[in-house]
Structure to design on (232 residues):
């Protein structure tokens, strides 16, 4: 048995999917079928998208303003009153300083210092930590649409993870520094989808992806053969 027959990683399937979606330019036949759209406009496709983390990394000089805004947006998403949590600007200097503390460490350092005492703080800085750790598997931009996909292969979908993915995608779509870096001139319409095996009731299935690959490449293509394992 060959390794491609039993490789269980979602990222492996997503790598072959990425190849498939870039085929047939400028007509974009596989991509249009995957999206279920008759026409697309100036598509951009990204894998394992850590947009918030990477934006923070390349704009360290403006990190505090970026994180302050991000925390405000998270508070709204988590239905936390604006006066109920410790504002980013009011955090201890060592915790606010990006040279000393990475954003995904803020919750831990507040707890360590005995300053994380309210449920509101836990919600905001716990969500901030999750957003810096999370990397949606696939993002597709077309026209004024932003499509986000969470991919699973051998497991079912975690509703908490999907909620976090939707929250992340909304922040991408609502924050100018983020949506402009994705190539949008204005806030895009955003949708989050599940990509998985048919038995887990996804929005689009790996079985459908296999059909697209088979029609485009034929049965003997290496990527088609990788996708074919989802039928077994």
């Amino acid at each position: 048995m060959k390794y491609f027959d039993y490789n269980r990683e979602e990222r492996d399937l997503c790598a072959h999917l990425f190849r498939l979606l870039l085929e047939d330019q400028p007509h974009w036949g596989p991509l249009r079928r995957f999206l279920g759209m008759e026409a697309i406009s100036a598509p951009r496709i990204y894998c394992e998208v850590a947009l918030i983390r990477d934006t923070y990394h390349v704009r360290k000089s403006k990190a505090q303003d970026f994180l302050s805004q991000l925390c405000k947006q998270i508070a709204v998403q988590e239905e936390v009153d604006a006066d109920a949590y410790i504002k980013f600007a009011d955090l201890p200097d060592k915790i606010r300083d990006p040279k000393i503390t990475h954003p995904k460490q803020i919750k831990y350092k507040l707890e360590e210092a005995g300053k994380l005492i309210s449920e509101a703080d836990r919600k905001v800085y716990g969500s901030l930590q999750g957003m810096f750790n999370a990397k949606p598997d696939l993002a597709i931009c077309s026209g004024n649409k932003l499509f986000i996909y969470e991919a699973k292969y051998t497991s079912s979908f975690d509703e908490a993870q999907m909620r976090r993915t939707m929250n992340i995608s909304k922040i991408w779509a609502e924050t100018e520094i983020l949506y402009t870096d994705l190539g949008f001139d204005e806030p895009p319409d955003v949708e989050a989808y599940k990509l998985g095996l048919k038995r887990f009731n996804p929005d689009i299935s790996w079985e459908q992806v296999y059909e697209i690959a088979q029609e485009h490449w034929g049965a003997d293509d290496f990527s088609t053969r990788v996708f074919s394992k989802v039928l077994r």
